[in-house]
Each structure stands twice: as structure tokens, then as C-alpha cells.
Amino acid sequence: MSSVLETEELRRQFGRLVAVDDVNVSIEADEITSIIGPNGAGKTTFYNLLTGRLEPTSGSVRLRPRDSEADLIDVTDKPPHEIASLGLSRGFQINNVFDGLTVGENLRIARISRDGRTLDFRAVADTDDDLAEGVRDIADLVDVTDILDTECANLSHGDKRKVEIALALATDPSIVLLDEPTAGMNATETARMVELVERLDDETDTTFVITEHDMEVVLGISDRILVLDNGELIADGAPDEVLADSRVREAYLGLDEDEELEASPERGEAEETGGESA
Ligand SMILES: Nc1ncnc2c1ncn2[C@@H]1O[C@H](COP(=O)(O)OP(=O)(O)OP(=O)(O)O)[C@@H](O)[C@H]1O
Q1: What pLDDT shows up at residue 261?
Q2: Range(s) of the domain holding residue 185
Q3: Cα 9 to middle of ligand 1, angstroms
């Protein structure tokens, strides 16, 4: 196995509060990894440390740059734009597309920024074949070709989330961090999103890491699950190992020793009625 991202004793305090508590993880290139934990467990802070939006109190982050078989490089004190250009991309839970532009225009901007050509006026011209081809390829991959001319303000919630993933992938990252990709989706949209992430994981060299509250999604999609509680990494393993861990059952799932995790009634009903409910 080869790791694409590693943290060593990564720590972040806000005053006396330890939001991320000396966390050691190694994200493997060929696995979909989910990060779970109760509210306030430190998931967002952890992501912010990885992307450079927050400086750690101590510890380090190492990343394998895109297009590279080389060793991981230390990105601990690098600014967010540099980490992003090295190959770590993040899709935001809060919509981060330009609403007044079309899907195609948004993808074009993402490709231009990947190429470091924001000051190249040729990059905005329609005649730039490479750029147009790059946009078409990403659109085909993420299945947003039929909405390329749609203004983002007019997209459904599900399509907007797809466009965010397309934008994250447009920079050819080695790793993409997704924040609750199924948040606010009904059962049908959720199933489609899970399928999409699994397919992209198969068809690209990009490694996917997600945070997610929906345990059905987590168990369905993950090769590996990391569990944070009060900033501490309390479990790290395959879904069945993590589900069997007594600390996880108590801290996060609220299950007794022998209790099984079952599908929520709302989800079952939504599937039976064709996913009408949100
Ligand atoms: N900028 C900040 N200043 C002070 N405390 C903060 C700050 N950001 C986060 N915290 C605290 O750090 C802890 C971890 O918060 P974080 O948002 O990382 O958790 P989370 O797992 O993402 O929660 P949720 O699932 O609710 O989004 C919480 O106690 C939170 O109040």
C-alpha cells in the first residue's frame, strides 16, 4: 500500500481546548477513507489543518504531490493555495461554485487555476482547445455534460454537489477531501452520490476522503474508517473492526454491546416511495 497523506502527532488547540489531539494517520491511495465522530469531535479542524487553513499547534502533515511517485513532502506550514496546487483539493459543504456563471464556465476557471494561467488572456478565449477538452473530459467523468450551459444558480442541490466534485477534480488532485457529500439529500440522491464517488474512485488516480454523519453511507462506501472523539483518534480500521470497537459504539453510535446498527426508518420509507422525502 502507498500512502498519499500522513499526519504525525498533529495537534490543534484553541486556548486550552484540544480540538485535534496528537493525531497520527496515514491515508492509503487505494482506499476510500471516512472520518466520523460526534459533533465537535474535531473533523472540520482536522480538515482545516490538512488544507493549510489552520496552522497546527504542533505536529506535521505530509502529502504526495500529484503526478508523482516520489516521497511525500512536508506541507505543514504551507499556505492553502500552495497545498492545493500540490494536489490536495477540497469540496466544500457550503456551496463554493460561482452561482452567476454556468457549470462550464466554473470548470474552465478551475482548469485555468490548475494550470497556473490566471494571467494568461488566451486561457479565457473560446479557441483554447486544450482547455475546452479538459473541461469536456471532467464533465464526462462526473456526468455533468448535459448541464454545462446551465447557470449554477439554477441547479438542483444534487447537481450542485456533483459540480463541486467536478471542480475539485478539475485540478487533477492526488487527494480530494469531501465534507458530508450527501448532506441534505433524499435517499435516491444519496444513493447516486455514493455510486458517483465509488465510480470516480475506480476510474481516477484520485484518493477520496469523506466526512459523513449518515452511517449507512459510511458503511456502504468506506474501505476504512477513522473515528475522532474529543479530538482524539479513537479508532482506525475496516468498517467491521470499527463497528465492533466498544469505544466507538459508546462514544458515537450509542449502541449497547450486542445491539446491531440498523437502517433508519426514514431512509427505508424514502426508498419505498421512490425517494420523495428530503
Ligand atoms: N475557531 C475556533 N475557536 C475556538 N474553538 C473552536 C474553533 N473551531 C473549532 N473549535 C472547537 O473545536 C472543537 C472541534 O470542532 P470541529 O468544528 O472541528 O468539530 P466537528 O467534528 O467538525 O463538529 P461538527 O460535526 O459539528 O461539524 C469544538 O469544541 C469546537 O467548539
Answers
A1: 64
A2: 1-93+172-251
A3: 18
